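[job 0412] stage=fold_complex status=start
inputs:
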Amino acid sequence: MSRFSEPQDPVFRRLNASLSFDRRLWPYDIAQSRAHARMLAAQDIIGDDDRDELLAALDAVEAELVEGAFDFDRDDEDIHMAIERRVTEIAGPVGGKLHTARSRNDQVATDVILFTRDAAGHATRAIDALVAALLDAAEAHLDWPLPGYTHLQRAQPVYLSHHLLAYVWMLLRDRERFVFAEAQMAALPLGAGALAGVNFDTDRAAVATELGFERVAPNSIDAVSNRDFVLDYLAAAATCATHLSRLGAELVLWSSEEFGFVTLADAWTSGSSIMPQKKNPDAAELLRAKAPRIVAHLSALHGVMHALPLTYNKDMQEDKEHLFDTVDTLDLCLAAAAGMIRSARFHRDRMSAAASDDLIAATDVADHLVRAGVPFRECHGIVAGLVRVAVDSGRHLADLSDDELAGASDRLGPAEFRGLLAQSAWLESKVSEGGTSLARVREQLAAARAAQQPV
Ligand code: ARG
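[job 0412] stage=fold_complex status=done
writing structure:
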């Protein structure tokens, strides 16, 4: 018998079905069904022989899914119904006992939380691999100067190690965000039933233990309504992908003929279909462009959950494609970033030439005047004037005459001024904690190594 007097409209069937994307949840669905069947028998809700038949059928279904031999039916709405149908085909009517004391609402919440928990763990390991690649690159280019930029204008010189370490700290924060997301997935939804709990004396703690949860969700209504953990994962992914987009953007710029700071390995580039000379940094460009897609997934799920009345609503089926695409995209981006960094060849000559234009020492000259007792704002004006004279006359700062210097300030000794314009002084003068002097970068590298997780 059925509640319905006519079959579903084919268009509704297509709109409603989630099997095409949620089939990848099958390992989690099988795992929770095993735990659930064992618990039902342990609580005398089903017999031990029922349990054994269900477990045997689940083994058979798992084998079919692993081998790709599982016969999906066009009437299977989602992975949960597909597996239950097949269990019943294999085990006979006892298959119908598997759904005792369970609803698809707590079932799907459990599959998704298990999937997302694994994804968060996977993301932290992928971040660790990228962090390791960046740390090795920082170590290998400890004292290679290049310009640091603001507004993409040369600002102050830094060491490449220092610049690469900036990404390490960003990624270590990303890692913590995934660890936080994982911690939000410590409570088992299963056992909440449709929303109110179930009419059986179940043992949720036993299921939680078998599935690796620390505890059970304390409120059945919240348990089936909650998708916070997906939002937490997506938020961590969005920030991480945004960081990768900045790395990608810099690799695109730096590998251009104009910069020439780095050559990306052929393995991470592609040719042009028409211009034989070209080597395009596609992977780096895609790191740049994939981030907004992940941010959009986060935003979309916020939209789905916004103002959604408790408890389960079919709207929530729309969590999956955003989640799955994010997991796949982030996974590719983290691996590509690590691969590109590991195989990149940096060009010391090009970077240090760009960093040796002595205009880049303007801040140091201003600070030199500060030490002579001139207020910083005044120094800024004095040096800005010198820069203007140099730029207007097409000269370096070091080429300004003694008279020109004296005209700018009586505190600016020409010998000290020119001494300051020696390149290493610009870098090695940044002695403050977290600054670019070598001793500070070494300190920072050691701190980052200590914060790094083994890969
Ligand atoms: N495919 C559904 C989803 O992904 C499973 C839960 C269905 N529950 C229900 N009451 N219709 O959300």
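[job 0412] summary: Residues 18, 22, 78, 104-105, 108, 312, 314, 316-317 surround arginine (CB under 6 Å).
[job 0412] exit 0
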